[in-house]
């Protein structure tokens, strides 16, 4: 009898442990995206359709169908707009938070991001495709190209906890894709720009808009 | 920091908050599945199935003071049993999920590299492979308790919670399962005198 099949040996059996970080991260993104989708999806369509099919006379069924159709239209046309509107609201709040700061503090924020951060936030406020993301969502979407994993911090500034930030992403009129990280006070503490004209991947923006050293 | 009960309550009210529970439990559950099925690709797909089902079932989940992982282990055990029944059909792959959500992963190469590396890593444990290959020849009821006991090092009390069986049944399944494991070993050994043991499923990575 093979010794390994005894109870004490099996209890001490060394088992492989695998850290599947990439799979974990990708699956999490899909799950959370799906959760976000489900939490905003109205159930009225399903219940309305069931009512038509099983319970009520034709007139009530017709009314329910009309309500369901309206809900469907609302879900199709209003939801994307409202998520953009919400992101635009975040951008607006950030501009306001920035303008409330003293000139010295404003200068510090600009040192941490780029000199034109206020203009970028105002552009985000007007952008039609601006969306909010979490750190995990951005990383799962873009990997290292997100600019989150190789950011240089200007000397004398504490590195922000990138995981705790809320990110705004939008496309500028020149085609550049800007990602701005906002802290709990809605202040910008991270900025990255993917400039298609430069022919390069995302690069995090350092002090005064200069690209950080790799 | 929120405790498990609070995390569950938060995730029930706000599904995107499920992420924290997911991060805490993923290593345990994915490794449990990997040790049972032996193939990283299958383990990843089954893990995805488990978490999709967990997230969908979360609104109906009732806190009874039992560890959340026990519930996930139970879903995982059902998925594994289903997998062995249907063998490779109808798995919910990450690719399918991406397609469903119209999402293009940028770091697909990383995923593939990770899959190959983890498969090679898993195949290095000779004793474990022997036990796992023998285990897969047993009926599912034995596989589950033996894997929980010897692969996951779960105490008997936790196996009772996970399987929903009473303590005596679990003990009996363990004892009879061990006997059958040894019988399988002898059968396989006799068979090798005429032909070699069926090789483990190994993915050979191209160097």
Characterise this structure.
- The complex is a heterodimer of chains A (214) and B (207).
- Chain A has 214 residues and is α+β, with helices and mostly antiparallel strands.
- Helix content of chain A is 50%, strand content 11%.
- Chain A has 7 helices and 5 strands.
- Chain A has helices spanning 7-11, 21-40, 44-55, 58-100, 103-112, 117-126, 135-142, and strands spanning 131-133, 166-171, 177-182, 188-194, 203-204.
- Chain A has a 5-stranded antiparallel beta sheet with strand order 1-2-3-4-5.
- Chain A is flat, with a radius of gyration of 25 Å.
- The termini of chain A are far apart.
- Mean pLDDT of chain A is 72; it is low at 41-54, 199-203 and 205-214.
- Chain B has 207 residues and is mainly α.
- In chain B, helix 2 runs antiparallel to helix 3 (40-57) and helix 8 crosses helix 10.
- The longest helix of chain B is centred in the C-terminal third of the chain and has 26 residues, at 167-192.
- The interface between A and B is large, with 40 and 52 residues.
Radius of gyration of chain A: 25 Å
Poorly predicted ranges of chain A: 41-54, 199-203, 205-214
Low-confidence stretches of chain B: 197-207
Shape of chain A: flat
Give the SSE order of chain B as H and E letters.
HHHHHHHHHH
Largest sheet of chain A: 5 strands, antiparallel
Q: Which value, in Å, is the CA radius of gyration of chain B?
A: 19 Å
Q: State the end-to-end distance of chain B.
A: 45 Å
Query: What letter string, H or E per element, gives the SSE order of chain A?
Result: HHHHHHEHEEEE
List the total number of helices of chain A: 7
């Amino acid at each position: 009898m093979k010794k390994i099949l005894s109870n004490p040996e099996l209890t001490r059996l060394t088992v492989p442990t695998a850290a599947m970080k990439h799979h974990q991260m990708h699956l999490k993104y899909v799950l959370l995206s799906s959760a976000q989708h489900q939490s905003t999806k109205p159930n009225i369509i399903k219940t309305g359709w069931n009512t038509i099919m099983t319970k009520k006379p034709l007139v009530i069924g017709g009314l329910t169908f009309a309500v369901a159709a309206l809900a469907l239209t609302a879900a199709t046309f209003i939801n994307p707009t409202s998520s953009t509107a919400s992101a635009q609201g975040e951008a607006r709040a950030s501009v306001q938070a920035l303008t409330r700061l003293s000139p010295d503090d404003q200068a510090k924020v600009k040192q941490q991001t780029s000199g034109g951060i206020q203009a970028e936030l105002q552009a985000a406020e007007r952008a039609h495709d601006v969306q909010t993301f979490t750190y995990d969502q951005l990383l799962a979407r873009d990997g290292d190209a997100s600019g989150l994993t190789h950011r240089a911090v200007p000397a004398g500034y504490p590195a922000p906890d990138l995981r705790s930030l809320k990110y705004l992403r939008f496309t500028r009129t020149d085609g550049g894709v800007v990602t701005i990280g906002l802290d709990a006070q809605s202040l910008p503490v991270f900025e990255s720009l993917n400039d298609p004209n430069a022919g390069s991947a995302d690069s995090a923006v350092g002090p005064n808009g200069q690209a950080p050293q790799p | 920091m929120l405790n498990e009960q609070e995390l569950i309550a938060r995730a029930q009210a706000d599904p995107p908050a499920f992420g924290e529970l997911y991060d805490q439990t993923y290593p345990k559950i994915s490794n449990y599945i990997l040790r049972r099925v032996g193939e990283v690709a299958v383990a990843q797909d089954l893990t995805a199935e488990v978490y999709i089902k967990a997230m969908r079932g979360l609104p109906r989940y009732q806190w009874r003071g039992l560890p959340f992982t026990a519930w996930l282990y139970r879903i995982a055990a059902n998925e594994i049993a289903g997998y062995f029944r249907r063998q490779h059909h109808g798995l919910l792959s990450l690719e399918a999920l991406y397609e469903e959500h119209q999402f293009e992963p940028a770091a697909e190469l990383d995923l593939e590299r990770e899959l190959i590396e983890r498969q090679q890593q898993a195949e290095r444990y000779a004793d474990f492979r022997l036990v796992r290959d023998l285990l897969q020849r047993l009926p599912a009821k034995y596989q589950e308790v033996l894997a929980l006991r010897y692969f996951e090092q779960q105490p008997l009390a936790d196996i009772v919670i996970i399987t929903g069986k009473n303590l005596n049944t679990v003990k009996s399944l363990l004892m009879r399962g061990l006997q059958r494991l040894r019988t399988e070993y002898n059968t396989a050994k006799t068979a090798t005198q005429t032909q070699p043991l069926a090789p483990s499923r190994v993915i050979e990575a191209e160097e």
